[in-house]
UniProtKB/TrEMBL annotation, chain A:
One of its GO terms (molecular function) is glutaminyl-tRNA synthase (glutamine-hydrolyzing) activity. The active site is at 77 (charge relay system), 152 (charge relay system), 176 (acyl-ester intermediate). Its EC number is 6.3.5.7. This is Glutamyl-tRNA(Gln) amidotransferase subunit A. It comes from Candidatus Gottesmanbacteria bacterium RIFCSPLOWO2_01_FULL_43_11b. Belongs to the amidase family. GatA subfamily. It comes from the Bacteria. Heterotrimer of A, B and C subunits.
Automatic annotation (TrEMBL), chain B:
This is Aspartyl/glutamyl-tRNA(Asn/Gln) amidotransferase subunit C. Keywords: ATP-binding, Ligase, Nucleotide-binding, Protein biosynthesis. Belongs to the GatC family. The gene is gatC. GO terms for biological process: glutaminyl-tRNAGln biosynthesis via transamidation; regulation of translational fidelity; translation. It comes from Candidatus Gottesmanbacteria bacterium RIFCSPLOWO2_01_FULL_43_11b. It catalyses: L-aspartyl-tRNA(Asn) + L-glutamine + ATP + H2O = L-asparaginyl-tRNA(Asn) + L-glutamate + ADP + phosphate + 2 H(+); L-glutamyl-tRNA(Gln) + L-glutamine + ATP + H2O = L-glutaminyl-tRNA(Gln) + L-glutamate + ADP + phosphate + H(+). PANTHER family: GLUTAMYL-TRNA(GLN) AMIDOTRANSFERASE SUBUNIT C, MITOCHONDRIAL. Heterotrimer of A, B and C subunits.
Amino acid sequence: MLADFSIIELAKKMRSKEISPMDVITEIYETIGKIDKKINAFITLVDKEQALRIAQKRAKTREAARSPLFGLPYVMKDAYVTAGVRTTAASKVLDDFVPPYSATVHRKLEDAGAILIGKMNMDAWGHGASTENTDYGVTKNPWDITRSAGGSGGGPAAAIASRLAIFAIGEDTGGSIRNPAAWCGITGLKVTYGRVSRYGAIAYASSLDSVGPTAKTAEDCAHVLEVIGGKDPYDATSSPQPVVRYSGELQGSIRGKKIAFPKEFFKEGLDGEIRKAIVEARRVFESLGAVVEDVSLPMLEYGVPVYYILAPSETSSNLARYDGIRYGNERELFTQETKRRIMTGTYALSSGYYDAYYKKAQKARSIFIEKYTDILQHFDAILAPVTPGMPPKFGELLDDPVKNMMADLYTVTVNIVGLPSLALACGFGSSGLPIGMQLIGRMFSESTLLALGHNYQKTTPWHKKHPGVLA
Amino acid sequence: MKTAKITPVTVQKVARLARVPLTKTQEKDMTKKIGVTVQYISQLESLPTKDVTETSQVAGLENVYREDEIDTERMFTQEQALANAKRTHNGFFVVDAVFDEK
């Protein structure tokens, strides 16, 4: 299928007029028609005729120098405002909200000529790791529809795995890009805090939120990041660090690159098959010339408590704006999980508790930065699991607050520190479910992570496999 | 660290502060679940943080300024601003009265 091709292959085919933007749109909508009723990845699907009209317009205005994303259909987690296209954050509070403006990431992709075809399912407001905390029905895992696609960005990840779009935009506050990428067997990049503008991203926890690409491969993520990265006058926290031509730096050898293997991430609590797959990936990196060494990265156990102070505190403040007056509906429509996070945060920030919780967590953050810096001074990346377990059955996480939090064990510290991390498939379990790993890098070292991922994917087959739902 | 036990009274107080309406069943469930969560996050107490300064901006940015000018690119028309409101009157948002009438 056309959706199996990489972004650059599709761009070449379009430039040579072998295929048109309409061909891709037509195929994608056919797949969506067959598959989405089984997995429920979309909250809002753009009308096919409208997508085709835009594709026709693109076909007429194509120029050789255009971005490789030109004419390609993409989807966004429903956490970005898109002018004229309903935006819900998967909550009935915003059930009928049609934004009057667009997020910077959306505007940049439109300017590049990409075609938005859908707004995707997620845990409401990003509150979850399984896309069960949604008011629009759970998203099912394309590899086994009795299981979760992960979260909070289960919709975008399941769509990429099922070939319902060429690439997607996710949002990662505590693992929301990487967790579903791992559980759906695709590639997702959590960028350095500030690498991509958050303007128009519906805020979950402002000091942790990051906007990034989800796609089949590291190479595709590189092409998307080139378009969406950069300083934005509308987001004061977006970084002035120059955007690198990530796709141009993929090919270099990774010989001599140093990768750290932190023993604390591989202790008890990690699923045996996941451990085995990542140890095997370590061997692949070594065979490609990288040097992998065991290290100690202490304090991992404090990551989840720190995250579950910072994120609910910030979300209690961010979600205070939903008053049902200017837009949206009443606050009683928040789900129980969202109410719990708002209230936990309100409690942690309330008079007499601020120092013990939020301030203490911000201090812990400084210590985490120090620990990660100690390692990343000597290493180009850290190789780690993404989740402690395989995709859960529905209900397993939602009913147990501690288990729900522990799903984030390996991902949250990366957000606390602000580092970039690339999640990608590295095998399959005996049950046929995909397994992911993550490569965590220095601040603004996305090009290194993408090159490591690309070199790995050149020699491994995992990212090419089709999930059961497509068979 | 000062960690109080989460009681139904705490939950009611926090719900009012956060303007989160709860049914009785939700209140009960919330007392239990917030209790578990607070107990869990209180593990942080055991981490020594004496002489550690807080980090609030991980990318090292300091104050970012812009000119205090009207950006017409980002202005809504009155219709756009009101388009998503449930209750409007003569081009304004309608809100419930805050004070009781005497």
